[in-house]
Design goal:
The complex is a heterodimer of chains A (about 130) and B (about 500). Chain A is mainly beta. In chain A, about 15% of the residues lie in helices and about 40% in strands. A 4-stranded antiparallel beta sheet of chain A has the order 3-2-5-6, with no helix packed on it. Chain B is mainly beta and about 500 residues long. Chain B has 4 helices and 25 strands. In chain B, a hairpin with a 2-residue loop joins strand 21 and strand 22. Classes of the chains: A mainly beta (about 130), B mainly beta (about 500).
């Protein structure tokens, strides 16, 4: 009876060992860098890539002007000629702590929150009937 | 006509028709078939206490009409539709209207038409409205659709200044609403959507590149228009490397330290003209003769005409092609410098440069390295690169260790170049797994280099970064969710004597 039980324990141990290759965040914070085992998907980057989804405004003819995306300090991180009636997806890299971006089209200005690495914006105003 | 165009709903909302056969006939129209009043508002129409309705049997034409609130107020500001700015033509304004609801108690149901002159500096540019037409519903019968035609006042016809039209729906008694549809206004659409819907103006564009001077960073250069900065116009990012790869690092992250700021210069067609990098050499806590460069991931070398400002003269490890990029690379490759000590001279004591306290400070140097994509309007052989193809994450920075071209150290999970010695992966402390896209990380998933977007002061010689920055480990342990500001100069954030 003892032999099968021993084998079961060995099998369970083997199964545990094979699963342990998957990354798990240690339950206790490491005291220093030598104890740290970082997540494989951690980028080690203090910046973050923000995806900006812009929904265009249907217009009877193209309306071009300068589209500017800037940080809180007014620094332009993206500038381009833009047709307001096109849908656009842009990617910018901003400091990790940036929680909003400024978008300017011509003289029209908008401040938009960065949420989960995305900024979603539509040139079509929201109206409530 | 409206039903024919249902498939292209929005296109016909605000339409300018120009007939070449019968002179110039322009019209501004509103038929509501977008079903979304926001689209019209975006196109500079105005609505007051009016909405769009698709109530069957009540809409006037197609699927949607304007519906007012109950007409129980005689003020023209109660319920209205307002056009964008127009250059008024000649002829009549036309539209259709009907009443809706029980006519009990109704006394007056009326439509007022006014024009609004443009007045510079006024709110929305709107001067005092001038009413010039009144229509009274002759009966409160809801089934009758009224065709209304409004002669334009002679004083505004064929004018070269902008006006709006203001259609108001007023009434007294009862609770009936009005429906209206198929508005046609003779004239030319003249609002500038890009300028708060104010009337269009002559745009100053000195270099005639299509970008107004006020938006043009190079108003007198037809080949350049815009600057886009990374990480920002006013700050520098910092790259800090360990040169022990693939062996274990001491993590003072100062074996090579450079600051960077890039300006992507584009033209009016949104094509990259130049990529200008300001690279500030700060420190090298090593005796190794380390180099530094970057790859533009996904950008072919023939997209670039030339490179200037880099320092590879006399190099024995770098072979350049005719455009100044490194040869034998799939992607564009700029070697900024092949040997740090060409740029900054050792002060005579201490290990390396600018990492040991008490050793003379060597002033930083700045290299302005320019990759030219378009030269006076002439493209590189490989053609244009749109700015959308050169986002900052295409910059793949790396260090070349001690004149060994194949020994590259990149940021975590950034691909090695074609010149990297792939046999080194998985040796020493390196745990790169090319199949999984894991590069330049240890078995603990620690990197050999970091990129601090907001810039930072690196540790002194032989002091690990976690000893200098007290929340660095927590930041990494929590995958950046906590202490994203670990490198800030805040109380309790760093051990000052261990920071250079």
């Amino acid at each position: 009876m003892k032999t099968p039980l021993f084998l079961l324990v060995l099998l369970a141990l083997a199964a545990f060992t094979s699963c342990s290759k998957e990354f798990e965040v240690p339950s206790t914070p490491p005291a220093n860098l030598s104890e740290l085992r970082a997540s494989p998907d951690f980028t080690w980057n203090t910046g973050k890539t923000v995806e900006i989804d812009i929904t265009g405004l249907p217009t009877p003819e193209p309306v071009f002007s300068t589209l500017t995306i800037s940080l809180d300090d007014g620094s332009n991180i993206y500038q381009a000629m833009h047709n307001i009636n096109t849908n656009t997806r842009l990617s910018v890299v901003v400091p990790y702590i940036s929680d909003s971006l400024n978008i300017r089209f011509g003289s029209n200005r908008y401040t938009l929150p960065v949420m989960s690495g995305k900024v979603v914006f539509s040139f079509i105003p929201v109206v409530q009937d | 006509m409206k039903k024919i165009n249902l498939g292209i709903r929005f296109i016909i909302l605000v339409t300018v028709f120009i007939s070449l056969t019968s002179g110039s006939i322009a019209q501004v129209t509103l038929n509501c078939e977008s079903g979304n009043r926001g689209i019209e508002q975006g196109n500079c129409w105005g609505f007051g206490a009016t909405s769009y309705s698709n109530t069957a049997n009540i809409v006037i034409d197609g699927s949607w009409s304007v519906r007012t609130n109950s007409l129980t107020n005689m003020s023209p500001s109660a319920c209205w539709v307002k056009t964008p700015w127009m250059l008024v033509g000649s002829g009549n304004i036309t539209f259709q209207a009907r009443l809706d609801g029980n006519g009990n108690g109704a006394e007056v149901k009326r439509i007022l038409v006014a024009y609004i002159p443009y007045v510079e500096g006024a709110s929305y540019g709107e001067g005092t409205p001038v009413q010039f037409f009144v229509y009274d519903f002759p009966a409160f019968n809801v089934s009758t659709i009224r065709d209304i035609s409004v002669p334009l006042p002679a004083v505004i016809q064929n004018s070269d200044v902008a006006y709006k039209f203001w259609i108001s729906f007023v009434g007294k008694g009862g609770s009936q609403r009005a429906y209206a549809d198929n508005f046609v206004f003779p004239g030319t659409y003249w609002s500038d959507i890009a300028n708060s819907c104010l009337p269009r103006k002559v745009i100053k564009d000195a270099d005639a590149d299509g970008v107004s001077d006020v938006n043009d960073n190079y108003p007198n250069d037809p080949y350049r228009a815009y600057n886009s900065y990374y990480p920002s116009q006013t700050t520098y990012g910092t790259l800090a490397f360990e040169d022990s790869w693939p062996n274990r690092a001491d993590y003072d992250l100062n074996d090579l330290v450079v600051n960077y700021r890039f300006n992507t210069v584009t033209n009016a067609k949104n094509n990259v003209v130049e990529l200008i990098g300001n690279i500030v050499t700060r420190a090298s806590g090593a005796s190794y003769k380390n180099g530094f460069g970057y790859q533009l991931d996904g950008i072919a070398p023939d997209k670039i005409i030339g490179v200037s400002g880099n320092r590879t003269e006399g190099s024995t490890i770098v072979t350049l092609q005719s455009n100044g990029l490194e040869a034998n690379q799939q992607f564009a490759h700029c070697i900024v410098f092949d040997d740090f000590f060409k740029i900054m001279k050792h002060p005579g004591s201490g290990t390396g440069i600018n990492t040991s306290p008490g050793v003379p400070f060597v002033p930083y140097d700045t290299l302005t390295v320019t990759l030219k994509f378009i030269d006076n309007g002439v493209l590189a052989p490989g053609g244009a690169v749109p700015i959308s193809a050169l986002s900052p994450d295409k910059l793949n920075f790396y260090m070349i260790v001690n004149q060994q071209r194949g020994v590259e150290v990149h940021l975590a999970d950034r691909v090695p170049t074609d010149m990297a010695n792939k046999a080194l992966f998985g040796t020493g402390s390196d745990d790169s797994d090319l199949a999984k896209g894991k590069y330049y990380k240890t078995t603990q998933n620690l990197p050999y280099a970091i990129n601090v977007l907001q810039g930072f002061d690196y540790p002194i010689e032989k002091e690990s970064i976690d000893a200098a920055y007290l929340h660095f480990v927590e930041w990494a342990y929590k995958k950046g969710a906590e202490f994203p500001d670990w490198c800030d100069k805040k109380p309790g954030y760093r051990n000052g004597p261990k920071v250079y």
